[in-house]
Amino acid sequence: MATEELYESTMQALRGKRLKAVRYYELEGQMDTWCTWPGFDTLRHGLDLLLESGQAYLVTWGQTFFQYDLDVRPGALVDELRAATFTNVSHESRWTPLVGQVITDVTVFLCSGKT
After folding, report:
1. Where in the chain are the domains?
2. Which of 17, 51, 33, 11 is nearest to 93 (CA)?
3. 3, CA 20 to 30 Å: which among 11, 51, 67, 110?
4. The pTM is what?
């Protein structure tokens, strides 16, 4: 079971890494919808952050701490799915100015669900 400390540690491991590419994915049979809004990208399923070191981090919907949180961990979604459509958006989305840059900081906001 993941703890907040482990989650934070995983996220902080991205610091100092250079972003090489970003890959979005949609499940097979669904239309790509990420580029339908002019002000932002939308994803139903997830993305891969590919680093110059050869490492990859996947980001997808999860339920680690509460319903519909983000699951971020080492690995690539392309390795976990049997059927999906992957699109390299490194040079055709809002990621373009970030590709080639070093990740200098990562901030995690965890909601406990308590009021």
Report:
1. 4-103
2. 33
3. 51
4. 0.80
